Inverse folding.
């Protein structure tokens, strides 16, 4: 099976540089130092991913020949494209940016309506954050109802490189896994859209499926999935009247969601708000691997918080929030309740990976662990390799619930939580030990995670520069290592990353004195 990605944009925007750095393993430092010759015609390459049994065809269209690609019969090159990557220099005028994007949207809608467009506003290092905010605001006005499009800020300069790397990885995953874009900054959060759908039906009382789709402004495939799931669980009633599906909430649906819907406004779930967050990190201090956890009963009532230090969860979440008065801060106590309601709402919803839920522009993520009578919401750095310590976490909480069974049962039965407070100190010590254990695993190269994959990519980029002049054969090996990192991140193969790190160390020891 193969997929097709097309780079397109005005001349000099940086399409070829992005392609060479991320898909051909070239040195970003070198390419930024020396101007590339303009691309003529189209250049293409195939990225092979054997473990996924997929190939990706990557096409780079010369900006000097955009009239050919967009206004003649040559535009048939876009047929069968999974993703269109529009690369535009962010220093261009607003009119130039929006005019070009509109042209691509019109072409997409005519030739290949299901193709997703990513607009990479490139070279963000050249503009102020004020201009970023202005573009962010103007995009909402210019494309208020446009489907299947996402705007990202990118740059190959050091301050922005890792975020651009992450964006390209996520884009490749979208292409290969047939998922709807939005998460970890890109992947659509099914939870957000579920809540918006519930709000809309409750607001309208009765609404046709067609009108619901128009008001929510997301792909029909997602609307149909959510509606079908709700109906199967008995939360939505569907009546067929004059060839139209009329939707309304059942009493069961209203009861389950009444408290949730009154507690969460739609503001924290605004999709366009999230997708234009600048790529500079919002958190001023390093986020620990594991920050804390909330233990709740199965109905979502919070019983106790375990934190690295007092108010750690609150501190890191508030640091992660953008300076935007329209975004309502997250009430931590409501998160377990919300998850409990979602669990009842649809067993088909994946609540094991609620990355970024309610934390707009944040650098935190949550993971939900379910036990017989309890749920544990774990807060962590989004870059960690959770699988490496998942068993440690599960074993700790299983033992905790077993050892303190009586105290937890009394707390649930009476509502008095005082007897659980001693567990806080035990939890704090455990979190310290868990973080130290995770860091030791990284130091000893036992595991790799996303953050260290990014660091590894940068280190290999520097290694490329060090041996560039003298060792051309070895240089090709280093370039291949960089491409292999991309593939390993797409395939989530952290074991392969460990092997790449070892090869890089061996090369450095051999060639760098």
């Amino acid at each position: 099976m193969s997929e097709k990605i097309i780079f397109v944009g005005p001349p000099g925007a940086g399409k070829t540089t992005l392609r060479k750095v991320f898909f051909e393993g070239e040195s970003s430092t070198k390419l930024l130092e020396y101007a590339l010759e303009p691309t003529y015609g189209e250049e293409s390459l195939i990225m092979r991913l054997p473990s996924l049994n997929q190939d990706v065809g990557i096409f780079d269209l010369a900006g000097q020949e955009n009239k050919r690609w967009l206004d003649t019969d040559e535009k048939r090159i876009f047929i069968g494209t999974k993703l269109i990557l529009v690369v535009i220099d962010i220093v261009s005028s607003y009119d130039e940016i929006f005019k070009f994007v509109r042209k691509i949207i019109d072409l997409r809608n005519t030739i290949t309506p299901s193709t997703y467009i990513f607009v990479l506003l490139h070279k963000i290092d050249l503009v102020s954050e004020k201009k970023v905010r202005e573009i962010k605001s103007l995009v909402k006005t210019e494309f208020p109802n446009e489907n299947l499009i996402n705007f990202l800020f990118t740059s190959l300069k050091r301050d922005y490189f890792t975020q651009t790397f992450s964006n390209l990885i996520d884009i490749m995953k979208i292409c290969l896994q047939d998922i709807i874009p939005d998460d970890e900054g890109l992947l659509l959060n099914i939870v957000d859209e579920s809540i918006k759908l519930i709000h809309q039906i409750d607001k309208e009382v009765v609404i046709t499926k067609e009108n619901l789709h128009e008001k929510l402004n997301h792909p029909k495939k997602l609307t149909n999935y959510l509606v079908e799931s709700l109906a199967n669980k008995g939360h939505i009633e569907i009546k067929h009247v004059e060839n139209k599906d009329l939707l309304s909430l059942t009493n069961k649906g209203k009861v389950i969601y009444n408290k949730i819907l009154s507690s969460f406004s739609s503001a924290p779930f605004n999709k366009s708000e999230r997708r234009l967050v600048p790529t500079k990190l919002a958190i001023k201090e390093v986020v620990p691997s594991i920050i804390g956890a909330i233990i709740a009963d199965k109905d979502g009532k919070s019983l106790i918080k375990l934190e690295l230090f007092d108010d750690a969860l609150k501190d890191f979440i508030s640091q992660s929030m953008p300076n935007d008065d329209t975004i309502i801060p997250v009430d931590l106590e409501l998160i377990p309740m919300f998850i409990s309601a979602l669990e009842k709402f649809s067993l088909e919803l994946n609540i094991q990976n609620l990355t970024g839920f309610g934390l707009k522009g944040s650098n935190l993520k949550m993971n939900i662990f379910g036990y017989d009578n309890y749920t544990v919401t774990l807060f962590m750095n989004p870059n960690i390799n959770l699988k490496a310590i998942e068993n440690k976490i599960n074993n700790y909480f299983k033992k905790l619930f077993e050892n303190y069974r009586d105290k937890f049962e009394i707390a649930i039965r009476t509502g008095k939580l005082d007897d659980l407070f001693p567990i806080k100190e035990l939890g704090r010590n455990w979190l310290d030990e868990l973080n130290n254990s995770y860091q030791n695993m990284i130091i000893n190269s036992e595991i790799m995670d996303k953050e260290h994959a990014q660091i590894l990519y940068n280190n290999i980029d520097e290694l490329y520069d060090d041996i560039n002049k003298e060792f051309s054969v070895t240089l090709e090996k280093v370039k291949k290592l960089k491409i292999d990192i991309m593939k390993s991140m797409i395939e989530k193969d952290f074991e392969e990353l460990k092997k790449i790190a070892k090869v890089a160390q061996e090369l450095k020891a051999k060639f760098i004195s």
